[in-house]
Design brief:
This protein has about 375 residues and is an all-alpha fold. Helix content is about 70%, strand content about 0%. It has helices spanning about 15-40, 45-60, 70-85, 90-95, 100-120, 125-135, 140-150, 155-175, 200-215, 225-235, 245-265, 270-300, 305-315, 320-330, 330-360; strands spanning about 5, 10, 65-70.
């Protein structure tokens, strides 16, 4: 299994080009059908959740699916540009007031990783695998760390994929059950193509491309989303742009995000998937419980809604949680900003600490 193009145990890079293209087409076709059906049902975050559910079922059923990061990244950049459009001068002025929620995030990252490390160790996994599976995010990076230190990287990938899948399914429908989201008031994905002036479309496109390659050159975590988001935020804050990406592109990005996540289960034996999903179910329940506890504590000090705080701390991916925030009409910039901090901690800080702890061992998984 490679990290960038994951197709279960098979190596995507070794596939013939036509086979790779065929699997990719099947993946996105299945995802698009699921998104379209969920959209007809007026469900929250329909295009992503529908694609996620249908592609996961198809992968487990044995359809020829593939999860391609090469295709995912350009579409993720569109989400980054859209998130950047949510940064208003009023939102920027509130950033210094985020100190309590950022502190809660720091506590969350440390506490959840420590708690789940013990959890996975007691389930019989080695220390490297347990650590890489316990971190709240950084799927690709944690797979790399597991490979480098001879851990079970496939288990790490599937545990993280299962966690994000469960979080994406639980949080929006949990908000509906609690009356925090009205299905009849879905936020539009965006304007039509014809409603965006050509000059602004060119500015946003150039900004997204520059942000992606700039963040990648600087080795910023989640470069495909973070770079375009930062550049788009600056463009909107200074008034150079006043629009967001068109709705059809945002829907396509959601389909790609959902399909890619579901396709990670392709080619994996069903028994292994069920066992790891059970492990992830317990770990996700612990993480969401901690999320709710810390969100409630931070709400007394931060001028943000409970849904926004929950999404800011929830154990889902940066793109996925930000998309949920957009779909629910809560503070998407607030949510995205906190997940950027979380990813930075998980990807840059914690692996360094872990490597130093185990650098003297000849067999880290012993």
């Amino acid at each position: 299994m490679t990290v960038r193009d994951a197709a279960g145990p098979a190596t995507a890079a070794a596939l013939p080009r036509r086979t790779w293209a065929f699997r990719l087409a099947v993946t996105f076709l299945v995802g698009a059908i699921g998104g379209w059906l969920f959209d007809l049902a007026n469900l929250p975050l329909a295009w992503m959740i529908g694609a996620l559910v249908f592609s996961t079922v198809a992968s487990v059923a044995g359809l020829p699916m593939i999860a391609s990061q090469k295709v995912r990244q350009p579409l993720i950049a569109i989400i980054g540009v859209m998130l950047g459009a949510q940064f208003t001068p009023e939102m920027a002025a509130q950033i210094p007031e985020w100190w309590a929620s950022v502190l809660a995030l720091l506590v969350y990252v440390g506490a959840s990783t420590s708690m789940l490390y013990v959890y996975f160790r007691r389930l019989g996994h080695g220390p490297v695998t347990s650590y890489c599976a316990a971190t709240p995010g950084g799927l690709n990076e944690m797979v790399l760390v597991a490979q480098e230190m001879r851990g079970d990287y496939l288990t790490v990938a599937l545990v993280h994929a299962s966690r994000v899948l469960m979080t994406v399914l639980i949080v929006p429908f949990g908000f509906i059950a609690l009356g925090l989201y009205d299905q009849g008031s879905r936020v539009p994905l965006g304007v039509d193509f014809g409603d965006i002036p050509l000059d602004e479309a060119a500015i946003l496109t150039a900004g997204g491309i520059a942000g992606f390659f700039g963040a990648k050159a600087l080795k910023i975590p989640a470069a495909a989303l973070t770079g375009p988001m930062v550049v788009s935020a600056v463009l909107h804050l200074v008034g150079v742009s006043t629009v967001a990406p068109p709705g059809p592109l945002v829907a396509a990005a959601q389909v790609v995000v959902g399909s890619t996540l579901g396709a990670r289960f392709a080619g994996v034996p069903i028994r292994r998937i069920l066992r790891l999903v059970l492990h992830s179910l317990g770990s996700t329940a612990l993480m969401i419980s901690l999320t709710i506890l810390l969100a409630a504590a931070a709400s007394a000090f931060v001028d943000a809604s409970i849904p926004a705080l929950v999404l800011a701390l929830a154990p889902g991916g940066l793109a996925e949680m930000s998309l949920i925030a957009l779909a629910l009409g809560v503070e998407a910039a607030f949510v995205a900003g906190h997940h950027v901090i979380r990813i930075t901690l998980v990807v840059l800080v914690m692996p360094t600490i872990f490597r130093r702890r185990f650098n003297s061992r000849t067999s880290p998984e012993s």
